[in-house]
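CORE FACILITY INTAKE
Project code: CF-77B
Contact: R.S. (postdoc)
Sample description: multi-component assembly, six entities in total
Requested service: structural model of the whole complex
Turnaround: standard
Below are the sequence entries exactly as provided by the requester. Do not edit them.
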Amino acid sequence: MSRIRAINEKDKYQKREAILDTAEQLWLENQHSVVSMDAVARAAGVAKGTLYLYFPGKEELFLALHERHVSEFFSRVVYYAGRVSSMDTDDMIYLVQGFIKDTPAFLPLASHTHGIMERQIPVEAGLAFQERIDRQLLEVVRALQVHFPLLTAALMLQSYALLLGLWQLLRPTPVKIKLREQDGKMVCTEDYFEMLDTALQALWCGAFAQEAPSPGIGS
Amino acid sequence: MSRIRAINEKDKYQKREAILDTAEQLWLENQHSVVSMDAVARAAGVAKGTLYLYFPGKEELFLALHERHVSEFFSRVVYYAGRVSSMDTDDMIYLVQGFIKDTPAFLPLASHTHGIMERQIPVEAGLAFQERIDRQLLEVVRALQVHFPLLTAALMLQSYALLLGLWQLLRPTPVKIKLREQDGKMVCTEDYFEMLDTALQALWCGAFAQEAPSPGIGS
Amino acid sequence: MSRIRAINEKDKYQKREAILDTAEQLWLENQHSVVSMDAVARAAGVAKGTLYLYFPGKEELFLALHERHVSEFFSRVVYYAGRVSSMDTDDMIYLVQGFIKDTPAFLPLASHTHGIMERQIPVEAGLAFQERIDRQLLEVVRALQVHFPLLTAALMLQSYALLLGLWQLLRPTPVKIKLREQDGKMVCTEDYFEMLDTALQALWCGAFAQEAPSPGIGS
Amino acid sequence: MSRIRAINEKDKYQKREAILDTAEQLWLENQHSVVSMDAVARAAGVAKGTLYLYFPGKEELFLALHERHVSEFFSRVVYYAGRVSSMDTDDMIYLVQGFIKDTPAFLPLASHTHGIMERQIPVEAGLAFQERIDRQLLEVVRALQVHFPLLTAALMLQSYALLLGLWQLLRPTPVKIKLREQDGKMVCTEDYFEMLDTALQALWCGAFAQEAPSPGIGS
DNA sequence: AATGAATGAGGTTTCATTCAT
DNA sequence: CATGAATGAAACCTCATTCAT
């Protein structure tokens, strides 16, 4: 990272981004434990104090990284939805899985963010974050409603919840890895993507079918 | 807590349970931070060392608490499924919501367990835990298949993921509370239970409809 | 170990000895760390409290074990000195090395005793121990003076110090083992027994030569 | 201790030395037990975390202190050997006793280091320490061989062992002090320095005499 | 703007010993 | 005599954050 002083706004933005890049890198390498500010500073080639010039604290730094992830995903969706003439559920799932695979730090960090961090963020920062996300989400919903008239923000939220929850249950823990070695067929060690595919299909299918009467299915 | 020495197995079991009770209580009171063994010992009226007679370490203590929750829920389901002549999705959702409301520590602790703790548990303990849970899960699935022939363990897992993920997104954070004060209609602050109801309905409906051809619904 | 109650003196003595046997065994197996009373009790098949019926405390237990070692060595010397018609330095060294090899727990425990433990023993117990040892030492000296007229208790002490000190410097520490792997010729990793042989030879030779004038040797 | 920030290398070195000074002081005052990092920090007037900026851990801190002692002794010897035109055994003993008297923490700490600590030091740190000491020892041996042609590194080691072992046997324990009160003439309570003098004389005398035939001396 | 030395609260775990049973 | 459940004082180390330079 450049050791040059960031005087103007553009330099500052680039330095901020560079710090986030480093943090993302470290997060990936060190999933087992938690990344320390010390490590970020060292890896980014800046002093610890400098981090605090660009981010109010640790929570905010990683929240910013998470926000970058979410924004990137939203951008992709809007872009894709605007380019194709029609979309179905499979296309959405394809987009989601593509993003997850391109952004391996996303799920672990999102899990951490929603599981732990969000409670410790200063309210002001949390509110601002939430507002930015909500605004983007509304755009995304609007863009998607062209293809999915019945789609709602609530369904997006539910899908995200499914995404997140499934990953927490199926993520490759040491225990999970061990289990899979012993018995590849245990239900709890099914591949995440396969399970996610099935679940999202079911959720969207069910969500869009709610309008029509659903007489005693499954019972 | 009783200060009597637990000589026989029954007393020991009761003392263990009493410690778990205390831990659960503290967990509820102290969601913002993490409960320390110190606090558990003090609140339970035992010495710190005593905790380590009943649990190998902190992680295991809270994992045991989580296991107690899950077992309790499973018991309820099996019991209920065995008593009624027929069940539908609404019954299941009713069971779930009932359990969550009766056990306010469940979701925060489950979130913590899957988000953080599971990675730090000794592999042996984790494997044993997983095995016990899986065994119970199979029983539950068997009991439910009487009423839902198409139900699978995978669907149970997906439902749990939804439960967990939604709660993490909608839990009453300071930020969330503030938001709701400002604007009761923001999508992100919808009530957890309402959202869970909708989502589970959709998921199960979709899951059970998968068998039948589902031609491009929603698109 | 017998779980029978020790009523008479003989049973008590045997139980005490059995505990010491177990402690010795454990000490050997666990040189890297320190043996806990818990471990001794478990290995001996008695309850922790029982240990305190036979020994006032941990220090005293291991001091008793050390005393058993020393007494055994003294016995051997007296026995040997009384049986042979003449002895020289080599015979003594042979006796010493034989004992050390037969009693692998001796040096680690002696080192621990003199390095750490002795300071923490209640004065009364320490005095009694010291007195018993001194009495035995005097006997040994008397028995040896038949063969080594110039031998003194001081020389015995010095020899013991050499024995002990050399072992502490040359004991197989992880570091020492690593060093020896890298370079078998470093002076600091010479074999203990070889070094001890040389040193004792020199010490006794020098001690017995002190009577005669030793003008400027070595300079 | 100065509360000034140590910015440059020189300040840092001085602060490190100051911490070692404090640790040495505490060691002397608290021989009965073991000095805690807490106590060192408090006595040094720095925060606990600061200690860990200067030393990786407790073991390393006290090993560094021991190394300072040894280096100081070696320096004295080399300096002395280079200044005088001739040395004999008495001069060496004088040097040794002088150092011990000037450095009262040396023997207790050395005893602790070799008795206990060395096993718990990370191998890397131990190896580095050993290498530095060995290098210095070789210099010392070279400097001394001017005056003692027959002197070897092995003899130095043996002398150190004697020094160490004798001190452990004769150190002023509560028990030893009590004994001396009762009976000033017991062999076990002879003065350390007197015993050391005799022993080193004998060892060196014997070592240098080994070349010449030693026909059954003492028997 | 940038540095990095200093802080210090906080948490888990061990284990010799006691004493009610 | 024997048990083993309970105790509770230590002790080490981490790391987010601050602030003098």
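Facility notes:
- Chains B and C do not touch (no CB pair under 8 Å).
- The radius of gyration of chain B is 20 Å.
Invoice: internal transfer
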